[in-house]
Amino acid sequence: IRRPPRSTQSRSSAASDVYKRQVHGGLRRKERESAERIQELEEKLKRQEDELAAEKKKNEAAKAAETEKDMLVKALQDKVNQLEEELWNLQEQNEKEVEKMKEEIKIHRESLSTQRDSLPHQKIIDSLSDNLINEQQQRISELEGTVKDLSKKLVENNGRESAKPRAQGTLRLE
Question: Could you write out the three-class secondary structure of the chain?
């Protein structure tokens, strides 16, 4: 920056005017540079705010997906628990029914053995009792097959959920 000569005392001298123009021009240039810098910073801030808003939206979407996943996992676990309970109940029912049928077969055999000598048509009676026994044994086999099928389905469901902890009190098939 040029300064006016010392010999010039008057503020209205030409040298003083040159000095003032230089000073004022420099100030305007600095103001313009400052305004440009402010505008750049504001634009940068706006971009960062936009990036933060996008990141926040992305995080919210991920959180919603995680919540939905957790709900599905819980629903699946509830369904597995329900199936295990149903299987347990079916097994108990089948065991009772099998025991009842075995008891009926035993009673039927005892009854037949006592009546065998007194009946004239022994072959017919033997055939009918054998048929009845076979039917009941076939029904027992069917019930046992049903229990095995349900057990396999439960094991398959548990296999899909093997990474998840088992609920207390769940049925374990052996």
Answer: CCCCCCCCCCCCCHHHHHHHHHHHHHHHHHHHHHHHHHHHHHHHHHHHHHHHHHHHHHHHHHHHHHHHHHHHHHHHHHHHHHHHHHHHHHHHHHHHHHHHHHHHHHHHHHHHHHHCCCCCCHHHHHHHHHHHHHHHHHHHHHHHHHHHHHHHHHHHHHHHCCCCCCCCCCCCCC
pLDDT tens column, 97-126: 888 988 988 888 887 777 665 656 666 777
pLDDT band, residue 42 (cuts 50/70/90): very high
Output the pLDDT for position 171. Answer: 46
